[in-house]
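pasting MFS transporter for the record, 432 residues
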Amino acid sequence: MKSEDKQYTFLGVRSRADFTLDKHRWQEVEQGEGKRKGGALSGQSKLLLTVNGLFAAANALSGTFVNVYLWKASKDFSLIGWFTLIHHLTMAITFWLAGKWVKEHNKMNCLRAGVAIAALFYLLVLWFGARAAHYFVPLGMVLGLSSGFFWLAFNVVYFEVTDPDNRDRFNGWAGLLGSTAGMIAPWISGFLIVRMQAASGYRLIFTLSLVTFLVGVVVSFFLKKRKSMGDYEWMLTWRCLRQKGTCWRTVNVALMAQGFREGVFGFMIALLVFVNTGNEMSLGNFSLITSAVALLSFMIAGKVLKPKYRRTAMLLGACVMVLIILPFFWKVNFFTLLVFGVGAALFYPLYAIPMTSTVFDLIGGDEESAKKREEYIVMRELALNAGRILGTAVFITVISFTKAPGAMNWLLLGIGSSPLVAWFFMRKVHAV
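structre below
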């Protein structure tokens, strides 16, 4: 290696050519982020993880129970489906429109706006109270707006403070923090709801979420303001989808398949636990057990997963995530739901970490895409949300015609098999 190349290796960049793609990271190190050895996380990475952890904790406190709260008021699965669909549709539109803000203006304010609007969501839920189910449309829009702002800014900053050598480590830590929050917060929420009068318990946990989001806003001010470069290209997603011979067409199909499952399983499993037990504490115990398993799984996966193992790991994770749905055909009860939850917690990191890391490595794969990282992240989120919307629409359509347990099981198996589709389209991309 030439002597002029050696000075760049501590950034996790393997050549001077690669360095040109990551000038923004080099500038941040020179400004005081400090050297990173062997894929270690920088101070800004750790601070971003803290903000993400607070966001996850606030959502875990109440997010698990918002759908239960709405279902108890309506006893209608399709209403929950419509609430989720509106959430994802608004989030997709927000991603596309807010891309200009993040690209050309202050991305950190976009991140803070996402956290602040999440606090507003829970303020509105507190205000509407028992009438919240009647306002599922505006509530879904506010939640979508919050998610769009936060995750767009978070993913752009995540790209800027990580590199190919520590991206799996960052994702492992993010999953670990999310699992910790998912383990403790819902159990506390379930305990409070059961021990207090239900209405008072829900008001308390929604208030705690609101306060946690506000703390997240405060912590976000310690993140450095990041430079904006270039003009936002509104139609990059459409241009990539029309372009032949690009791996982004394949990646977009894989991302849609990933979102197809997330859109339904993100709310349905928790609802099934509550419907089959009739008790918020049971849902809290379910989250405690499954998140404890996920915590260990993400910790191990984040340490041992290397780019060369991604394709195999993703296939293993996808296969098991389909197989764990099969016990539902025997009987849907707390035990079979727990089998599903523990299985998903164990193997989801093998599926999710390679998927996320590979896509972000592609964004930094050449100078042109690195310069348009905001547009590519918007494209990623549009594909994910298109899948979520499609999956939720299928769920609403089926549930409108029949609520028979057998039909529900086949619906969950069909939607839950989409990780195999995601792996099929990503299998060659992992090797790029």
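Residues 43-74 form the longest helix (32 residues).
The chain has 18 helices and no strands.
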